Amino acid sequence: MENSQVNDMVAPIDYATAKPGGSSAKPRGPSAEFKGSGAPTPIAKNGSAPSAAEATAGCSDAVRRAKPARVPTECGDLPFLIKRDGTWLYRGSPINRKELVCLFSSVLRREEDGSWWLRTPAERGRIEVEDAPFIAVELDWTGDGRHQVLSFRTNIDEVVTAGPDHPIRISQDLITCEPTPYILVRPGSAGHLGIEARINRATYYELVALAVPEWVGSKRLLGVWSCGKFFSLGELPPGEA
User: Fold this and answer.
1) What is the predicted pLDDT for the residue at 59?
2) Is the four-CA dihedral 113, 117, 120, 125 of positive or negative sign?
3) Neighbours of 148 (CB within 10 A)
4) Which residues lie below 8 Å from residue 125, measured CB to CB, with a gap of 6+?
5) What is the pLDDT of residue 172?
6) Per the count of CB atoms within 10 A, which of 6, 31, 72, 101 is most buried?
7) Which residues are within 8 A (CB) of 141 and not within 5 positions of it... i.e. 6 or more apart?
8) Which of 172, 171, 197 is closest to 184 using CA atoms?
9) In what order do the strands lie in the sheet containing 88-90?
10) What does pLDDT average to in each consecutive run of 10 residues of the chain (241 residues)?
């Protein structure tokens, strides 16, 4: 695939399941779907004909038994890179169409070991991410104090509200030693690593402007409230109000 072709793509990679009208096979009717499946005909407790809900439940159970979970095909390493500023590259060239970036982002997953993958029911492949895959570019807030609600818009126009399920954390940049804030966008499964957005500089300054001091244990911290939870932005020096 040439670099210039990526921005003309309609779906990521060649996922058959993601192509509209990707299958030309004639749909099978219910009789063809369950013929010979061995599923018993549901009968209501009173011996009468089953209701629609009862019949549907029986069919759903039969389908689950007949169709095992599909294992995606491994595609190895894919030539995608997400830069620290949120730019997506394919073979070193930026993907300029935002619709494509949003489409790829919708199938982005993170494994327990921290690796990044594009995954659909049919295929999956590993990609590189320099920092966080998303950037929080705008902040909106309502209320104040413990009743304050902070909402962030990312570079793919996804809105995330800070709270117990979407915490804000501060990390120290290894190069500049400056604080680097993040917000969790998608939690990881079974406690695994989640997918975060890095809060950009301008949005972080807005966040600091909303910060208030609070005692947490024996420490006096500067932070923000959202959805009833306090998020520390840093520790206040002794004697500072």
Assistant:
1) 56
2) negative
3) 17
4) 13, 74, 75, 76, 77, 78, 117, 118
5) 84
6) 6
7) 148, 149, 150, 151, 210, 226
8) 197
9) 93-94, 88-90, 73-82, 123-129, 116-119, 108-110
10) 53 44 44 44 55 58 62 93 97 96 95 93 96 97 95 97 96 84 87 89 96 92 96 84 56
This prediction has a pTM of 0.71
Q: Which helix (H) or strand (E) holds 125?
A: strand 123-129
Give pLDDT, residue 212. Answer: 95
> 48-71: buried (b, 16+ CB within 10 Å) or exposed (e) per residue?
eeeeeeeeeebbeebeeeeeeeee
Q: Residue 25 is which amino acid? A: A
CB count in 10 Å sphere of residue 108: 20
CB under 8 Å to 16, separation ≥6 — which residues? Answer: 22, 23, 122
Structure tokens at 199: 């809060």
- Tracing tokens 């923000």 back to the chain, one arrives at 224
Q: What is the C-alpha to C-alpha distance for residues 214 and 221, in angstroms, rounded to an integer? A: 5
Q: How much of the chain is helix, strand and coil, in % rounded to 5?
A: 20, 35, 40
The DSSP element (H or E) to which 201 belongs, if any, is helix 201-209
Residue 231 pLDDT: 97
Start-to-end Cα distance in the chain = 59
**Predicted pLDDT of residue 28:** 45
Please give the pLDDT value at position 5: 54
